[in-house]
Amino acid sequence: MNYYLSVWSNYAQFNGRARREEFWHFVLFNAIAYIVMGMLMVVSFSFAILIGLYYLAVFIPMLALSVRRMHDVGKSGWYILVSAIPLVGVIWYLVLLCTAGEEGTNEYGPDPKAEQVFA
């Protein structure tokens, strides 16, 4: 849940880096939210409006998080556009999302793994 909230606190921050864990936790939470709202839509179609509003609210944070994730693997944020290429682009983009980030500081900022303090 902390990763989900950290994405919201960096709502439109396209600078810096994001760990795999932060990215996939946000994706998982959103998938669960969409599934729950989809089930509620069966009860009442008015929940479709809720799904649309949630999608609009999550669009910018997800875009910013995706750019920061590309920065973590040492790629420009523009690499998210690779996913627009049918099949091959989507597979390559997924590979980039699953790739471990560069260790140490890169041109996009310090290593977020090194910054994490374990309490």
Number of helical segments with 4 or more residues: 5
Helicity level: 55-70%
Mean pLDDT equals 91
DSSP strand count: 0
From N to C, what is the helix and strand string? HHHHH
Give the number of domains. Answer: 1
| Beginning-to-end CA distance, first to last residue | 17 Å
| Envelope shape | globular
Radius of gyration: 16 Å
Q: Main β-sheet, in a few words?
A: none
Query: Uncertain runs with pLDDT below 50, 5 residues or more?
Result: none
Helix-and-strand structural type: mainly alpha
Portion in strands? under 5%
Could you explain the architecture of this structure?
By secondary structure, the protein is mainly α. It has one domain. Helices cover 61% and strands 0% of the residues. The chain has five helices and no strands. Helix 2 (20-43) runs antiparallel to helix 3. The protein is globular. The model has no long low-confidence stretch (mean pLDDT 91).
In short:
With 119 residues, the chain is mainly alpha-helical.
Topology of this protein?
Blueprint lengths: L1 H8 L10 H24 L3 H26 L15 H11 L13 H4 L4
Helix pairs in contact: 1-2, 2-3
Task: Considering the chains and any ligands shown, give keywords for the structure.
mainly alpha; 5 helices; single chain; 119 residues; globular
